[in-house]
Amino acid sequence: MTTTNISPSKFLAQDNVYLPHIVVIEKIIEETPNIRTLHFNFKDKKLQKEFSFESGQFGEYSVFGIGEAPFCISSSPTRRDHLEFAVQRVGRVTNALHRLGVGAEIGFRGPYGNSFPLDYLGGKNLVFVGGGIGLAPLRSLIWNVIDNKDKYKNIDIIYGARTPADLCFKYDLDSWSKNKTVNMVTTVDRGDESWTGKTGVVPKILEEVAPSAKNAAAIVCGPPIMIRFTFPVLTKLGFTPEQMLTTLEKRMKCGIGKCGRCNIGNIFVCRDGPVFSYAQIKSFVSSEY
Amino acid sequence: MEQKLRNEARALLEQGKIDWIIGFEVGSLKFTTTPLITKDKSDTERLVINPFIANNLANFLTQIKGRVGIVAKGCESRSIVSLIQDNKVVRENVVILGVPCTGVIDLSKVEKLVGKDRDELDDIVRERDKVIIKVNGKKKELSTTQALFDHCLACELPTPREYDILLGEPTPPIANPAAQESIKKLKQVAPEQRWASWEKELSRCIRCYACRNVCPACFCQRCFVEETEPQWVLPAPRWQDNLIFQIIRNIHVAGRCTDCGECERACPVNIPLRSLTRGMYDIVGELFQFKAGLDKDALPLMTHYEEKEAEDFFR
Amino acid sequence: MANKKISKKDIAKLLNQWSREFAVFVPSKESGIATMARWDGKDVTLDWYRNTVIPKANFLPAMEEMFRFQKDKESYNIELPPDGGKQLIFGIRPCDARALAIIDANFKNLYQDPYYLSRRDSAVLIGVGCINPSESCFCTSLGISPTESKDVDLMLTDIGDQFLIEEVTDKGKKLIAKASGLGEATKEDETRAKEMKETSYNKVTRKINTEGIVERLIACFDDQDFWEKIAAKCISCGICTLLCPTCYCFDINDELTKQQGTRFRSLDSCAFPVYTKMPMENPRAEKWKRVRQKVCHKYGFFPMSFNAIACTGCGRCIRLCPVNWDITQVLNNLPVKTEVGK
Question: What domain range includes position B118?
Answer without folding.
Answer: 105-147
